[in-house]
Every structure is written in C-alpha cells, then in structure tokens.
Design brief:
Order of helices and strands: HEEEHEH
Strand order of the largest sheet: 1-2-3-4
Radius of gyration: 12 Å
Number of strands: 4
Largest sheet: 4 strands, mixed
Helix content: 25-40%
C-alpha cells in the first residue's frame, strides 16, 4: 500500500519525463481543488487529485472535480502508481 507522498512524487517525475510540469496546486479559500496541475506539451492540461492507495476523494473534492469538468477540464484521482502512465497518455490525447 503506497502513501500519497510516494505516489505524488512518482507522478511529478513521470510528468517531467514526458516533457511537462506537474505543479502543486494550492488555492487559498477554495477548498476541494485537486492537488496537482499537470501541464504537458501542446497545451494539454489536467488536474490530478492524489490519494494513498485505496483512499477516495472527500465529497467536497468530488463536487469541485465535477465543477471543473463542467468547465471542460479533465480531473483524475490517482491512488496507484500503475495509473500514472494511463493518465499521462490520456491527457496527451486532449
């Protein structure tokens, strides 16, 4: 079972290897925003909520994800390092 920090570190490293940036996304006064903003070449952008293995987003986080998706952004929940490449591949297709 992997911890959130370890999964997040691997995400940052994989995005960098893909030629992008994976910024810590912190917003003051906007609770529920995803942890990371993934920026890939050619303007590909998505939000990623990182969780420890088996953990799920809180209801407020799910609500914020739905709001972002309604605006046309992709939001992912990552709780297993095996899904990192799947997320990067999907973001590349946007």
């Amino acid at each position: 079972m992997e911890g959130e920090r370890e999964i997040e570190r691997k995400l940052v490293s994989a995005v960098k290897a893909a030629g992008g940036f994976c910024h810590k996304f912190s917003t003051i006064g906007s609770v529920g925003m995803p942890d990371r903003l993934v920026l890939l070449p050619k303007g590909k952008t998505a939000f990623v909520e990182v969780k420890a293995t088996g953990k799920r987003p809180r209801p407020l986080q799910i609500k914020k994800h739905k709001q972002l998706e309604a605006l046309g952004f992709r939001c992912y929940v990552l709780d297993d390092e095996k899904n990192i490449e799947v997320i990067i591949s999907d973001v590349r297709t946007l």
